[in-house]
Amino acid sequence: MRVVSKIFWVISCVGFLFALFTSYGNAAEKLWLGFDELNQFAVSRNAYFYGAVAIFLLFNLLFVAVANLVIALPKAFLFIPKKDFWLANRDNRKDLNTILQSWVYFSACVLNTLLITVCIYFGEKNHANYLVTFERYWLFNVVWIMAFSLILPFFRLFIPKGNLLDNSEQ
Fold first, then answer.
1. Measured in whole angstroms, how far is the alpha carbon of residue 24 from the centre of its chain?
2. Which is deepest, 31, 78, 98, 156, by most CB within 10 Å?
């Protein structure tokens, strides 16, 4: 399960970089992030690029650090349902670590998808040739669905079984 979440995380990282480079390449010299007609806020293409990369790196490094620290989390700091089962032996704790790490990587994937959506939005809004033909509203629905699905691993912790594919009784 952890491998699948890491694969999706890597795909979302590559997707973000593709969306960022595409929006950066198509943008005019100034990007308008305006509030209204009288009080517009503009940044240069370079400031947009470096700001987006900084946000991307900051949050992704934070998520990777949290995913790696989950393994060393003491029992006192685990506030999870069915805590007695998950901490009963090494195998259950290993399964719990896998679930929590996958959850963190999937959360990073959701954040990257949101950043992809923002890059596409600003890329279209500030296109140098003003040729906006791509309908982007379906991306916002994808982000909402992914954000809602972040609560699903919490419900997985209510099932007192380490491996759901294992048919043996515990």
1. 21
2. 31
Q: Tokens 């349902």: give the residue.
A: 81
Q: Find the domain containing 78 and state its range.
A: 2-156
Q: Considering the entire predicted model, what is its pTM?
A: 0.79
Residue range 42-92, pLDDT digits in tens: 778 888 899 999 999 999 999 999 999 988 888 888 888 888 888 888 888
Inside any domain, residue 64 = yes
- Rounded to the nearest 10°, the torsion over CA 22, 23, 24, 30 is 160
Is the Cβ–Cβ distance between 82 and 158 less than 8 Å?
A: yes
Residue 32 is inside which H or E element, if any?
A: strand 30-32
Query: Total domain count for the chain?
Result: 1
Would you state the pLDDT for residue 52?
93
